[in-house]
């Protein structure tokens, strides 16, 4: 696995519990923080993480990378989660 992917997953894994704790304590229903996922379409793990974070109420938006290997999988996942706001990006290495 590339170093950049490992770093991105590590940041996501660290941020997820912190954000979950915040949302558990914010029971007023007011939006206080907008969290955007990045690089959906880059890998299977990123796609799963973004969708899971959305379904658990953490993510509200995601950026999708079109020319990447897992773009078509990301499209199918987004069809199954129509409430997830998305933006298209054209860069992938």
Q: How would you characterize this protein structure?
A:
With 93 residues, the protein is of the alpha/beta class. It has one domain. The protein is built from 3 helices and 3 strands, in the order αβαβαβ. Strands 1-2-3 form a 3-stranded parallel beta sheet. The longest helix is centred in the N-terminal third of the chain and has 23 residues, at 3-25. The protein is globular. The model has no long low-confidence stretch (mean pLDDT 82).
Low-pLDDT stretches: none
Shape: globular
User: What does the largest sheet look like?
Assistant: 3 strands, parallel
Query: Which percent range fits the helix content?
Result: 40-55%
Query: Termini, distance in Å?
Result: 14 Å
List the domain count as a whole number: 1
State the helix count.
3
Strand order of the biggest β-sheet: 1-2-3
Structural class: alpha/beta
Q: Helix and strand string, N-terminal first?
A: HEHEHE
Overall number of strands:
3
Q: What is the CA-based Rg, rounded? A: 13 Å
Would you tell me the overall average pLDDT?
A: 82
How much of the sequence lies in strands comes to 15-25%
Keywords:
single chain, 93 residues, 3-stranded parallel β-sheet
Write the layout of secondary structure elements.
Layout: H1 3-25, E1 36-40, H2 44-55, E2 61-65, H3 71-80, E3 85-89
Parallel strand pairs: 1-2, 2-3
In a nutshell, what does this entry contain?
The protein is of the alpha/beta class and 93 residues long. The protein contains three helices and three strands.
């Amino acid at each position: 696995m590339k170093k950049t992917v490992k770093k991105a997953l590590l940041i996501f894994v660290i941020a997820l519990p912190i954000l979950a704790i915040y949302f558990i304590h914010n029971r007023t229903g007011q939006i206080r923080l907008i969290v955007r996922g990045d690089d959906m379409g880059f890998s299977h793990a990123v796609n799963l993480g973004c969708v899971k974070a959305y379904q658990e109420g953490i993510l509200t938006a995601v950026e999708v990378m079109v020319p990447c290997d897992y773009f078509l999988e990301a499209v199918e996942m987004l069809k199954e989660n129509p409430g997830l706001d998305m933006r298209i990006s054209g860069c992938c290495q």
